[in-house]
Amino acid sequence: MADTDPSLSKEEEAALRAKEEAEQAALPYKWTQSIGEVDISFPIPATYKARDLSISITKSSLTAGIKGQDPIVKGDFPHSVRTDDSTWTVTTSPDGKTKIVEIHLDKVNKMEWWPHIITTAPKIDVTKIVPENSKLSDLDGETRGMVEKMMFDQRQKEMGLPTSEEQKKIDLLKKFQEQHPEMDFSNAKIN
Question: pTM of the full predicted structure?
Answer without folding.
Answer: 0.63
